[in-house]
Write a structure and sequence with these properties.
The structure is a single chain. The chain is α/β, with parallel strands linked by helices. It has a seven-stranded mixed beta sheet, with helices on both faces. It is 36% helix and 25% strand. The longest helix has 20 residues, at 283-302. The structure holds zinc ion. Zinc ion (ZN) binds at residues 12, 14-15, 17, 41, 43-44, 46.
Length: 303
C-alpha cells in the first residue's frame, strides 16, 4: 500500500479528548510503504492510531491481513490441542459462573473459525449459537457443521437490530482492538445480554509489550491498545461491569450489564514511560525489520 494523505482525527474513545501526542509509527511488511502513527491521549493515556486512516484504506488493510490469518489457522484443523487452547483458557476463567447451566444462548462476535462455538458445544447439552462473522468459509462451517445462525455484518455496523434474542454468554475475544467505534459496539453488546447474561471480553495488554513494538506488537489491523485501566474505564462507560477479570499479556474480563458510569483514568505519563521503554528495548530489531521492509519495497519497484 502507498503512503496515504487521508488521515482522520477522531476523539479519544475513553475520555473524548482530541489532545494526542504521537509516540512512534508502526510498519509492517504486509502493508508495504504505509506507516501508521501511534499516539497517546494526553488526558487519559489511551494508546491508539491517531490520526487514523480512512475507512476505505482500512478495508484494504483488512483485505490483505485476513486471508493470511485464515491461511495460517485453517478451519478444518484436526489438532484439537492447538485449536482449542485459547478456548480451554476461557473455560478455566468462566466455568464457575456457568456451573448450573445445561443450555446456553451464545453470541460469538468476530467468531473467526468458529472454534469457540465448537468447543462450547462439548460443554453444554444444548446451545443456541449466533455468530457475527464475515469470512465466507467460516460462515459455511458455522452454519452447516455447527448449526449456528450467522450474521454477515461488519462489527462496526448496527448488528443489534438483526438479533432476535438476548444472550447468556457473549464472546468478544481479541476483537475490540480492531473496531472503529468501540463505544458503539460495546453498547450493542450490553443491550444484547439476557438477564444474568455475561460478556467475555479479551484484548492484548499494552502494559506488557513482549515483541518488537513498531514492527510486530503494533499491527496494521489494530486501532486501539488498551491497558487494564483504560479497558475497565471504557467498559464501565458502556454499562459493562466486571464480575471477574485479570491481566497478563492479555487483559480479560467477564462482564455483566450495569448502570453506565465513567471511571476517570490519567495514565498518560505512566503509559508514555512504558512505550518509551519498549521502543528502547526493541530499537535494533525494529530498525532491522524496517530496513527489510524498505528493501522489499525497493525490490518490488525495480522488478
Ligand atoms: Zn483519552
Amino acid at each position: 500500500m502507498k503512503r496515504t494523505k487521508t488521515l482522520i482525527k477522531v476523539r479519544c474513545e475513553i475520555c473524548d479528548s482530541l489532545n494526542f501526542e504521537k509516540v512512534t509509527d508502526m510498519r509492517h511488511s504486509l502493508i508495504g510503504e504505509l506507516s501508521m502513527p501511534i499516539a497517546i491521549c494526553k488526558t487519559c493515556g489511551h494508546v491508539t492510531v491517531w490520526p487514523r486512516l480512512s475507512d476505505e484504506d482500512y478495508k484494504t488493510v483488512n483485505e490483505i491481513w485476513y486471508p493470511k490469518k485464515f491461511q495460517k489457522d485453517p478451519i478444518d484443523l484436526k489438532d484439537e490441542n492447538y485449536k482449542f487452547k485459547k478456548w480451554r483458557k476461557m473455560w478455566e476463567r468462566i466455568e464457575p459462573f456457568f456451573l448450573q447451566r445445561k443450555s446456553l444462548r451464545l453470541l460469538d462476535i468476530g467468531a473467526g473459525q468458529g472454534w469457540g462455538t465448537e468447543f462450547l458445544q462439548q460443554k453444554f447439552e444444548n446451545i443456541e449459537a449466533t455468530a457475527i462473522e464475515q469470512w465466507k468459509p467460516s460462515q459455511e462451517f458455522l452454519k452447516n457443521k455447527l448449526g449456528a445462525e450467522v450474521i454477515d455484518k461488519d462489527i462496526d455496523e448496527n448488528w443489534n437490530k438483526f438479533l432476535n434474542k438476548k444472550y447468556d454468554l457473549i464472546i468478544f475475544r481479541h476483537t475490540l482492538e480492531h473496531v472503529k467505534r468501540p463505544v458503539f459496539v460495546l453498547e450493542q453488546i450490553q443491550k444484547s445480554l439476557a438477564k444474568g447474561g455475561l460478556a467475555y471480553i479479551v484484548v492484548p495488554n499494552v502494559e506488557n509489550i513482549d515483541k518488537p513494538i513498531r514492527t510486530d506488537y503494533f499491527r496494521p489491523v489494530h486501532l486501539h491498545y488498551f491497558s487494564p485501566d483504560t479497558f475497565i474505564s471504557l467498559l464501565s462507560k458502556c454499562g459493562l461491569s466486571p464480575i471477574a477479570n485479570g491481566f497478563e499479556n492479555e487483559i480479560w474480563g467477564l462482564f455483566e450489564s450495569q448502570e453506565k458510569k465513567f471511571i476517570k483514568v490519567s495514565n498518560y505519563l505512566k503509559q508514555k514511560k512504558l512505550i518509551n521503554k519498549a521502543l528502547r528495548k526493541y530499537k535494533l530489531i525494529d530498525e532491522y525489520n524496517i530496513l527489510k521492509i524498505r528493501l522489499k519495497n525497493l525490490f518490488k519497484k525495480i522488478v
